[in-house]
Design brief:
Structural class: alpha+beta
Strand order of the largest sheet: 2-3-1-4
Strand content: 5-15%
Helix content: over 70%
Radius of gyration: 31 Å
Shape: rod-shaped
Order of helices and strands: HHEHEHEHEHHHHHH
């Protein structure tokens, strides 16, 4: 017997388990389908978290809050002048009033466009030197220019979103590991069942001079083949489903959602999962068969 990984025609005739093989393939297909979906979720969350960090790193929002429109205009001008003179500030631009009206309209209705409604002036600030120390200096300079101004870090407002993403990433990683463990358990059960089914055949092989290692190779090649075929089917089905979902997500127009798309390296990682599962299944089958044969002896 050679050290081939994939079962040959003679091996399949020797270990003829057509019904069990079909079941094993379908089980592996389901395992890989769920694993690829979980892995894609985790990779998408990693990409989205990276996009969020890049968008929020060194970004501040300045609010000029005062009820008097003329005073608000003077304070806004003073804040803009102060920001323009700060080396740590890359860009500072007031948010257009029409945009603020559109954002507030779902809550205030038509009153959002009423000139008598004291709506604060918002200024988006991009930092050239991101960091807490730079943000603190900018905040101090803004408050010195206009006591009515408030400085908020956008990352503080979106910290629950970042925390949720980290939870999703950890959950996806845990689910992938759980599926690998479940696959290992399935392989162990299949190997033990195969040993019981082919006990007489294995005894004859031993009488003909076959070693335990050679017998184990029969089972590991057969299980590797089932895992590769079933895993490939499940992985392809999952990747098609993922592509359809991502195609729908790109039409939403959200920068955060758009940042969760999968990169080329992510697709390569997903495509490599069936190979990883085949290696795990092969190793698990080898260990299970050798342990059981040694106990029999």
């Amino acid at each position: 017997m050679s050290g081939r990984v994939i079962a040959g025609a003679a091996d399949r005739r020797l270990l003829d388990e057509r019904g069990a093989t079909r079941a094993m393939m379908w089980i592996m297909a389901i395992m890989l389908f769920l694993t690829v979906l979980a892995a894609a979720l985790g990779l998408g969350m990693v990409n989205a978290a990276g996009t969020l960090d890049r968008q929020l790193a060194g970004r501040l929002t300045v609010q000029v809050v005062t009820a008097d429109p003329s005073q608000r205009a003077r304070d806004t001008a003073a804040v803009m002048t102060a920001l323009a003179g700060m080396p740590a500030v890359k860009r500072a631009s007031p948010v257009d009033r029409a945009r603020l009206d559109a954002l507030l309209k779902p809550w205030l209705g038509e009153a959002s466009s009423d000139a008598d409604v004291p709506i604060p002036t918002l200024i988006d600030v991009d930092m050239s030197v991101p960091g807490e120390e730079s943000a603190a200096r900018v905040a101090a300079g803004v408050r010195a220019a206009a006591p009515s101004a408030r400085v908020d870090s956008q990352s503080r407002w979106l910290s629950p979103v970042a925390s949720f993403m980290r939870t999703m990433i950890a959950g996806a990683a845990a689910l992938v590991l759980l599926m690998i463990a479940a696959t290992t358990a399935v392989v162990l059960l299949a190997a033990r069942a195969g040993l019981e089914t082919h006990r007489d055949t294995i005894a004859i092989l031993h009488m003909l001079g076959s070693t335990d290692v050679q017998v184990a190779r029969l089972f590991q090649r057969r299980i590797a083949l089932d895992t590769v075929i079933g895993g490939a089917v499940g992985a392809v089905a999952a990747m098609v489903a993922i592509w359809a979902i991502l195609h729908q997500m790109t039409g939403l127009g959200s920068e955060l959602v758009g940042g969760s798309v999968l990169l080329q390296r992510d697709w390569l990682l997903l495509a490599g999962l069936p190979i990883v599962f085949a290696l795990v299944a092969t190793l698990a089958a080898r260990v299970a068969v050798l342990r059981r044969l040694r106990r029999v002896h």
